[in-house]
Write a structure and sequence with these properties.
Residues 37-56 bind DNA. The protein is globular, with a radius of gyration of 19 Å. Helix 5 packs antiparallel against helix 7 (118-140). It is mostly helical. The protein contains ten helices and no strands.
């Protein structure tokens, strides 16, 4: 006779399955973009289509949830860096490194692909404020060029998260190399930047206006 798991066990199992789906979706979207079919995500996660759609009724809902998680992770990374690092430079390096780990840049290309919620807009603005605080601290100590903006960081993270080779392991291996090059470029330099920095309204406009959507999950 098969014993059914206790309620707590079922909840833990559901959480594990959800993490598996989210990790699979993140990988598939990174490799194929927003046009990736839900069937590819289900196959990567090892779940049936019915199970996937019960949790995430559409690709938009799934992508929106992933982006929200990424935004929350980015904000948390900025707040940790500000609270725990002793210098603006170390806070900036830690923020960029942890933001890449939580998938911020990898999902940036989704901007404009689906309607966003007001909660996402709010998270974006909070993240911009935290990034500005890191940059202000670093500029005040003279460790970074003073013309950097949060918009610059968003686009740099997107570039760093780009798939550089067909081999995911090799892409992961190369990322620290390009991160080192980028960080060197953020140091103080007399060379003026050739164009105005992207403003935060420009960054936010990529997603479009907030829509009156119910919370997905």
């Amino acid at each position: 006779m098969t014993t059914r798991p206790a309620a707590g066990g079922r909840k833990a199992e559901a959480a594990r399955n959800n993490r598996t789906v989210l990790n699979a979706a993140r990988e598939v979207f990174f490799e194929q973009g927003f046009d990736a079919p839900m069937s590819a995500i289900a196959e990567r996660a090892g779940v049936g289509m019915g199970s996937l759609y019960r949790r995430y009724p559409s690709k938009e809902v799934l992508a929106r949830h992933l982006c929200t998680i990424s935004m929350e992770g980015t904000l948390a990374a900025a707040e940790r860096a500000l609270a725990e690092e002793s210098s603006g430079w170390s806070a900036l390096v830690r923020f960029i490194t942890e933001s890449l780990e939580c998938g911020m840049g990898a999902l940036s290309g989704f901007a404009g692909s689906f309607p966003v919620t007001q909660a996402m807009i709010d998270l974006s603005e909070q993240g911009a404020n935290a990034m500005q605080e890191i940059l202000t601290r670093a500029a005040a100590e003279g460790s970074v060029r003073p013309d950097l903006t949060p918009g610059d960081l968003v686009y740099l993270l997107k570039l760093l998260a780009t798939k550089t080779t067909p081999d995911p392991a090799r892409t992961t291996e190369l990322r620290p190399r390009y991160l080192t090059i980028v960080l060197d470029g953020l140091r103080p330099t007399p060379t003026p930047l050739p164009a105005p920095a992207p403003t935060w309204p420009e960054i936010a406009a990529r997603w479009g206006p907030a829509t009156d959507l119910p919370e997905d999950l």
